[in-house]
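Recall that a protein's primary structure is simply its ordered list of amino acids. Everything else, from secondary elements to tertiary packing, is in principle encoded there. The following example makes that idea concrete.
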Amino acid sequence: MPVRSYSKKLMIVGVKFSGKSMPKYFQTEDASLKTGDFCVCGFDDREETGLVASLETRSEISIKTGHYPKILRKAEPEEIEKWKELKKREDKAILLFRQKSIQHNLVLKVVDVRFDDKNNKTVFHFTSDKRVDFRELVRDLASILHTRIELWQIGVRDEARQVDGYGICGQRLCCAGFIREFQPVTIKLAKNQDIFLSPAKLSGCCGRLMCCLAYEDELYKELAKSAAPIGAFVRAKNIQGIVIERNLLNQTYVVQDDNENKSQVKQSQIIEMKPPEKPVPVVIPEDEDSSEDIPPDDEEPRE
């Protein structure tokens, strides 16, 4: 009888280095570490104090251990106080940014702020519907904060990644959880899956097309090659008619005969199929939202 081998379990820790930042992930062997603790993490050239935001256990063979740096130790009381002071500085800086933006009549939405005390620099990330001239704003912020100011405009998808949250599926946002680089998402991906063009179902928290539309696109395109299109005439053992609906994953069709009776037919039951003379558009039911407000295709360049 073969001997079952068990892989080593690793504890992966999500650590937040400021009140506004996303968690970064580390590995630890300290079993006493728990959510809400403070720890010190090592980088190439420095050490930083962070708050333990999440804990999870993973199999050693399922991940590359070299991908996760290690937590060095638990934080000392003075390091914890410094982290809490940083959070207060962030709140004050964001409030100052909003006040000064209003004074200069700039329509900006600040997303987060990062302090680089080593280089005497403060970096703000913001979103805006258009390009803005913020030179006067930078001068005001620099005179009050006494640091070099950098303002970086980010897109709405990057904002959703920074803020974090949960999608309509109930899971954490993909952009905040595991997506490292955004890929173009177009309305064609939804059409490949025969999805009704409803804004409520297609747009994510950022207001753009959901990234998950691209996950199974290759599979849907492969299944569509051998599937009967909408509007095709099909003949099965006990029914013949026109395809009015189809489910590519289940390989099933809703067929309507000459008497407008509807039946479900499996792909394997089809004996004969004649494609439509011209493509038939997918009709959206009356209770669905109009497609006029479909979020735009994600074709803008990213910095």
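The domain at 230-274 is CATH 2.30.30 (SH3 type barrels.). Helices lie at 77-103, 135-145, 156-163, 174-177, 187-192, 199-202, 217-225.
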